[in-house]
Amino acid sequence: MTRKTDESEDEMLSTDQAESPLINESNEGSYGEGVVMKKGPWTSAEDSILVDYVKKHGEGNWNAVQKHSGLFRCGKSCRLRWANHLRPNLKKGSFTAEEERLIIELHAKMGNKWAQMAAHLPGRTDNEIKNYWNTRIKRRQRAGLPLYPPEVCLQALQESQHDQNTGGVNGEDRGHHDLLQTNSFEIPDVMFDSLTTNQGILPYVPELPDISASNMLLKGVGSSPYCTLPPILTRQKRFRESTDLFPGSGGSFGNGFHSFEQFRDDTRHKVARSFRFSSPLDSDPTAKNSLSFGVIQGSHSLSNGNSSASEPTYGALKLELPSLQYPETDLGSWGTSLPRPLLESVDAFIQSPPPGGTFETDCSSPCNSGLLDALLHEAKTLRSAKNHSSDKSSNSSSATPGDVADSSTLNICETELEDCGDPISPYGHSATSIFSECTPISASGSSLDEKPPAETFTGVVKSEPVDPAWTLDMEIESTTRFNYTRPDALLSADWLQQGSGYIKDQSIMTDAIATLLGDDLASDYKYIASGTSNSSQGWGLNSCGWNNMPAVCQMSDLP
DNA sequence: AATTTCAGCAACCGCGATGAA
DNA sequence: TTTCATCGCGGTTGCTGAAAT
After folding, report:
1. Helix extents (H) in A36-91
2. Going from the N-terminus, what domains does chain A have, and what CATH number goes with each?
3. By Cβ atoms counted within 10 A, which residue in A33, A183, A317, A491 is the most buried?
């Protein structure tokens, strides 16, 4: 599909331009010294003027083009037109497989450094590459495929580990870390809850890299190469639409299920609560992970589906990097470093309560939060809530209001869910049936990459054509090899399967969330959740499941 | 056949960096 | 040192044709 060429376009316009000095009245743009600058598509006449000018005067001094050539285009526009279309040695046509492969590799290294990437692709422009990449992101998300082929991830991981071992992080290698950062280990709130029941059997808490939960919350869908769901905006829209499934927007669903508003609020609390942790293990705001919570706007990762890998994200400047905030340290240590014993961590948490009242209701903890902290605190909160469920109100004096409120909310939510007994959704799908119906991931090591959700979702998502640069076999092989270097392997393979309580909690929560999501999203979510509980590929739940959670809990979108 | 949705591309806009006055 | 102009980059928007409904 190609856009109509400028040439053919020009043929229609050229007659008008016989009189008009290249100005299309409908496209008049900025005003400079009283001159109306044209905007919009370039005509061949304009092109020829620009080419002639550059031949005479060379590139540069683009603002002089208008003065000397009579071209009613701003310098910026001239430069862009020249760089992207008129300069010699430009390649036309779609990218070759080799070029695509190179782009993927370069993006893994550089992030959204389109100009730098273009330097490695002779004849290609940064704009071309950028457009290609954005299109690729969309395609991959639609198909539920990883943005980066696991080969690239594995390579980045290995190089990152090598960097860690050698102790150096040079400029370019930051990109690898950023790639790893984009492999955010996104864990839905379900996971936090489920940890409670697994705490007793959890031998270790792996030394998780710090994951900015707020970032996960804000980042939306697609930042993780392994999390490839439809764009969050679409999700949000669909979610808003899905609320229409419930007449009266706040009434009961029926079957005694609590109201949508109630559940929405519960979910809001739960998700928000999960990310309000100040970490005693990382209480220094100037520590490595200096990403602060509370910066709600500004992440542009939503749009391009992948965080910029240009530089580590510090402070609240950019929230584009999804999660892993310790690029210099732990990234390469997945599965290799000795995990921190859970109890030790818990003790550390309990002995060192979060400073300063801790749980900011606006998610703007002055300290940094990591997944480990979140998990620990979630476990603590849940344990505490259960131990004192009969005396919730009395706790308010000894805990922060947010904590208590959240715990109470949690208990309410849990109680209501557990009161349902058998986790049967108002739509009549038990969790068991969900798992049995949607079990796309076998226990034999298949992955989301192998069997993308596109094949499992109910015909909504089109299949993604095989990436010419990366074959399915490559992804299968590399994904399989990659399994045990991925953090989800630590989180899911062993202890998750031991914890029947986890399964129960998860299925309850899954079903509830599926209900909340509505029919179309429910299938997605159920699939994702089932994938985790049924296999060691916890990644599916971690990433996609989480990414459904923001869809549920995009607070700003809730009425 | 008409309409809607989607995908791809070109161009614009805002911002930061750089250098000259 | 400050101010201003220019350049370049990255993100975003809008247009168009194709595909789907």
Report:
1. 44-57, 63-69, 75-81
2. 6-86 (1.10.10.60), 153-557 (no CATH)
3. A183
